[in-house]
Specification:
This protein folds into 2 domains: 75 residues; 142 residues, no CATH class. The two termini are 40 Å apart. The protein is flat and about 85 Å long. By secondary structure, it is mainly alpha-helical. Helix 2 packs antiparallel against helix 3. Strands 1-2 form a two-stranded antiparallel sheet. It is built from 10 helices and 2 strands; from the N terminus they run H-H-H-H-H-H-H-H-H-E-E-H.
């Protein structure tokens, strides 16, 4: 999978220029707009001129900001001077992302409490129901997935979907649909015949999000389960086949 991903999916490096620096001024923003217009509409000479003008405006703005910080130092306003120097250097105060709840003092205790709280609905044992369902499917299963269905389903995946525990992304499955469809076709049909699934397809990455700005109780969190995209594709194919069979009958 890694080899296929490195050969098929293209990577690119993007430069991001921050526009909220403390020395940012109206003149620098206007120079940035002129550079964008020259890049989209103008020629090489106009673009080079816009770049030179932008460098000049950035130099003026930084010198002006430096003189402002130096004046604060001269006035012995050390707190404002240090604050300005940290801002210009890009040093930000690290804020703790830990959500404080009165009854828990550590992330481990909070995670265990959330696990018990949301698993309170999973106390019923479904093993007998699963066993009877397997027997029913073993006697009544008569459909086989086709490779073109697997390829079509892979091409319809949304690339922005988050991957599950197997870390197989939607971009990989969609870009390599033709190359991987035969492999997944075999795995899906074997799973149907053996009535079993790979272990990673049964797992999920659980992420908790607060429903409110300042959560105080466990019910203020909601959980999102990230499951395997392959498992979702398999479920979609089986569901469509079941619907087709029920429509025929």
């Amino acid at each position: 999978m890694t080899f296929c991903e490195s050969m098929i999916i293209h990577t690119k490096t993007v430069k991001v220029y921050c526009s909220n620096k403390p020395w940012m001024s109206k003149e620098v923003r206007a120079s940035l707009q002129r550079k964008k217009l020259s890049f989209n509409q103008g020629g090489p000479s106009a673009l080079n001129a816009a770049k030179r003008g932008l460098r000049v405006e950035i130099l003026r703005a930084t010198q002006k900001y430096r003189s402002r910080v130096e004046s604060k130092l001269a006035e012995k306003n050390l707190s404002s001077a240090w604050s300005g120097m940290k801002t210009s250097a890009g040093i930000q105060q690290i804020k703790s992302t830990y959500i404080t709840i009165d009854d828990f003092r550590s992330n481990c205790e909070l995670a265990n409490a959330l696990n018990k709280f949301h698993l309170r609905f999973e106390q019923f044992d479904f093993r007998e129901e699963v066993k009877s369902l397997r027997c029913y499917l073993k006697d009544n299963q008569h459909f086989v997935l086709e490779q073109r269905e697997v390829e079509k389903s892979s091409l319809s995946l949304k690339t922005k979907k988050s991957p599950g525990p197997d870390r197989i992304s939607g971009t990989l499955l969609k870009s390599c649909a033709k190359q991987l469809s035969s492999i997944f076709h075999y795995i899906f049909n074997v799973s149907l015949n053996q009535q079993s699934l790979p272990k990673l397809w049964k797992l999920a990455v659980i992420i908790s999000f607060p429903k409110v700005n300042r959560p105080k109780v466990l019910n203020d969190f909601k959980l999102v389960a990230l499951t395997s995209l392959l498992m979702k594709t398999f479920e979609k194919l089986v569901k469509s086949d079941f619907k087709g069979d029920s429509a025929c009958t």
